[in-house]
Specification:
Strand order of the largest sheet: 1-2
Order of helices and strands: EHEHHHHHHHHHHHHHH
Shape: flat
Helix content: 55-70%
Distance between the termini: 67 Å
Radius of gyration: 30 Å
Length: 365
């Protein structure tokens, strides 16, 4: 059994300090466990925190024991908040919600990590998104089996925490929660928590990628499986070249389709076919100028806003209160140094560059 470490702050009022429980009340004779600090800007860290909280903290009663001890303090606000928090945790709805989040987030974690990577293109993102959707839809079609496993774990966890999962009170007119007429708690929480959240997760992923699917359909012809193009695939490619008509070297559709077919034969003749736009760009050459341009467009299409968010995070660290009056040119330079910190800067090259600028006083090295 682990112990949840709580740092008790010193109250300002000496009378409250004297009335608080002594420090020995928090000394539970168990080995310490420190909950790792988390970042609210990273989704994968939040997922790991949920899994850690369920598996390492909540199952060992360290949170409940600590909150129970704080509830006996003489400080009314602190003890009341601790007691309310303890009562909220000791609810079947809270335990089941945590396990549902842990299950669904674990499936979405690879997709989240892939979106935060720098070298990701639209095609790879869509392949992983479709695989994630397929897994979620499989769970949705077998919802009884999957939720039974979750409910079994929730019941075992509730037993360790010394309470049982019961059916909420059912009233004729309910405003604050769902009022389903069911016979078992498992059926109730499956209908009110698991199925709605699973449907919401699936709908959000589908709505997030529906526009990407439309764009990607035309690019799929650049990664062929056969040399034969269906009428639908041909129409999708024509829509693609019409959309990027100003960026292509040729405007004749017959030339573009012929170039595509030659490119498809070249790809299919390779022992190892490219899986993303960057790999295909290394194979493409001047013989396929329009295909090369389309691959460049595919490689540069933004999949997520992770890179932009990293830039804003860097600006928070750079433009502090003391640097609030710096010029835009200096701010851009410091931002580039911070964002691309992996690139080494040679001091001699910097001095050589500065020496070429015009100065009032000669710059002598």
């Amino acid at each position: 059994m682990d112990k949840f470490v709580i740092k008790k702050s010193k109250p300002k009022d000496s009378t409250i300090e004297n009335s608080l429980a002594p420090k020995n009340d928090l000394n539970i004779k168990t080995p310490e466990t420190c909950i790792p600090s988390s970042s609210f800007t990273s989704v994968d860290i939040r997922i790991n925190d949920i899994i850690y909280f369920v598996n390492r903290v909540l199952s060992h009663k360290c949170v409940i024991d600590s909150l129970d001890t704080i509830s006996s303090w003489a400080d009314g606000d602190t003890s009341s908040q601790a007691n309310n928090l303890k009562n909220s945790i000791l609810q079947g709805e809270f335990i089941i919600s945590l396990l549902v989040l842990s299950k669904i987030f674990a499936i979405g974690l690879p997709l989240s990590k892939q979106f935060q990577s720098v070298a990701i293109d639209l095609r790879e993102a869509m392949v992983l998104a479709n695989a994630t959707l397929s897994e979620l839809k499989t769970i949705r079609s077998n919802v009884d089996e999957y939720f039974h496993d979750i409910y079994t774990k929730a019941s075992a966890l509730a037993e360790e925490l010394c309470f049982s999962i019961t059916l909420p009170r059912i009233a004729r007119k309910q405003k604050n929660r769902d009022n389903y007429s069911v016979n078992t708690p498992e059926e109730y929480f499956k209908i009110t928590i698991f199925i709605p959240y699973l449907d919401l997760f699936i709908n959000e992923i589908e709505s997030r990628f529906i526009e990407h699917q439309k764009i990607l359909k035309g690019f799929q012809n650049l990664f062929p499986k056969t040399t034969e193009m269906s009428t639908l695939e041909k129409d999708e490619f024509i829509s693609l070249i019409d959309f990027y008509n100003d960026d292509l070297a040729d405007n004749n559709k017959d030339i573009l389709i012929s170039e595509l077919k030659l490119w498809q034969r070249k790809i299919l003749a390779l022992d190892k076919q490219p899986t993303n736009a960057m790999d295909a760009l290394t194979i493409c050459n001047d013989m396929y100028p329009n295909i090369y341009k389309l691959l460049q467009i595919l490689a540069t299409l933004p999949v997520s806003t992770a890179s932009s968010e990293r830039s804003f995070s860097s600006l928070k660290r750079i433009k502090t209160y003391l640097r609030n009056t710096m010029s835009e040119k200096r701010l851009n330079g410091l931002a580039m140094l911070s964002i691309h910190r992996s690139i080494s800067v040679d001091a001699k090259e910097v001095l050589d560059e500065l020496s070429t600028n015009k100065r009032r006083v000669d710059f002598i090295l």
